[in-house]
Structure formats: C-alpha cells, structure tokens
Amino acid sequence: MSVVLYLVEHDRGRIDETVLGGMTGARLLAESLGADLHAVVIGTGAATASEGLDAYGAGRIHLVRHDLLADYGPDAWAESLAQLARTTGAGAVIATGTDRGNEVMAQVGARTDLAMVANCLEIEPDGDDWLMTRVRWGGSLRERARLSAPVKLVTLAPHSTEATHAGESAAGTVAEFNPELDESDAVTMVVDRVTVSEGITLATAPVVVSGGRGVGSAEAFDIIEELADLLGGAVGCSRVVTNNGWKNHKFQVGQTGTVVAPDLYIACGISGAIQHWVGMMNAKNVLAINIDSDAPMVTKADWAVIADLHQVVPAISAEIARRRTLAAESG
How far from each other are the two terminal CA atoms of the chain, in whole angstroms? Predict the structure, then answer.
C-alpha cells in the first residue's frame, strides 16, 4: 500500500478539532503501513481548509473542485472521493466517524461495492488484512473485526486520537483534482443555511455544564446556563430533558445527540444512562452533582457532590463571581 487518503471534513473552510484528531490517527496508521498520507479537501473553502495540513503529516493535499461541489452533498463528495481513490491507486480511504464522515464513506462503499467499517478505535495491519477494534451499540460494545478488501474504507471513532502535529512537516504538495460529475451525483445537497448558534459550540466547548431530569423544569435551567456562562462553556442536557420539552435537541449530549470531549464535564442531576455516557465519556474530567450516590454518573465521575443541585450550582456560581470581583479589585 503506497497511499492512504484522508477526507478532511470542513464547513466552508473551518475544520473541527475532531477532524484533525482523525487525521492524526490516519497519519499514524499510514506510518505503520509505510504509506504516504494524502489529504482530500472538497468544495468551497477547500483552499482555506488546506492551510497547515502538512503539519499534520499530509505529503500531498488534493483540492477537489467542481461546480456541483459548491456546498456539501454526500453523493457528490462520495463520487469525487471514489474517483480520486482510483486515480491515485489508494489502498485505503479514511474519514472521521462524524455524521458527515460516516455518510460520505457509506456512499463510497456503495459506489465501489466495498465494505466500509465505521467508528474504529484501533487498527492493526495483519498481512493484507486489517484487524480492528470498533465501537458498536453506541459505545456499549467493542467489536473485534477483520477487514479484507483491495481498498480499505474506514472511519475513525471521534476523539479516539488527540490532534498532534507530525514530528516533521511533510511536503504538503497541493494538487487540484476535477472529478467528472453530473446531476445524478447531486441528489442530496445543502441548498440553504440558517445560523442557529454563534461562538462556543457544544461539540467544541472546553467546559460543558449539563442538566438532566433532576433540574426539574425549563425555568430551572437558568442556574445551569449561569454556571456555563461564568466558566466560558456550553450548556448540554440529557435525552429526558429534550423529551420533556425543557431544551431543544441541539443541546442533547449522547448517543442520539452530540458527542463531546471537553476538559471538564459537569453533570447536574443526570443519572448517567449508557446512551448519555457514550456521548461524554471522552471528557478529560467529570464532576457529578446528584442526590443519588449510587447513580451511574456518580460512580464513574472523577469527582462527585452528593447534594441538591439547586443549592450546589448557585453556590459554585456565587463563589466564582466573588473571586472574580476580588481579583478585579486587587488588580
């Protein structure tokens, strides 16, 4: 195998840290195979997104351009990626296992009649095959699998590898690739966008303050929002909160919500069912605030406060505010 292609997912030129982590994982795999890592950047903003990818090990950067690639479309992206794989003779095509990454790679598999393996945690070359450990059933199961295929199609589990620069930057040679596409490759496309949030997002926030059933009501989330604001973080919630209509689904953390990996995750009144845990288990530190000392979230957390969140959360916010006032007065 001489070439490993890595799809650099981006949003009009902006690359999420999770995708750069996936690129780090792809680089390490390419090194173990003695292969060259090529980055693939598709659509509007590709030139912007390509800047600095050589520092993550990209020996060649393919800018994929076509009129039908003005915005994201899984069909057109997949067809472009499949054509590029044939042109370069790639032995593997890899993406990060985000919603978009899995969707595009599944389309590549369908178009090339090749197996696609999603959400891999570990990959070990074994002759012409790959032995893989991957996440199944929302994180409650890890499956050991073997992939035999002339071209390996794989997505890497989000947050499974931390984004790091290569020891020595690769050449980063930029080349433009123009796929042959027609209207049949544009069945699904983004045709309009609505800005629903600005600034810190749930997926990238360094601190996430989440509330569960124990918060009690939509109005009671005011104390959760106040603490998140003081910490420069984002507000999250459990599925029961969205089911009760207290928060929009965009705030949900978990298997059917957003996967997060903050420096600190504060779980307020959240029992910690497996569906929620798999969405935040990559947090570096977890603080649980709950009246139930036997709750799964409490038993798994790094720290726990066994008390009423309606007393603890405002007390934390008040202490942060007090210390900031003292610091400002002394400074």
Answer: 60
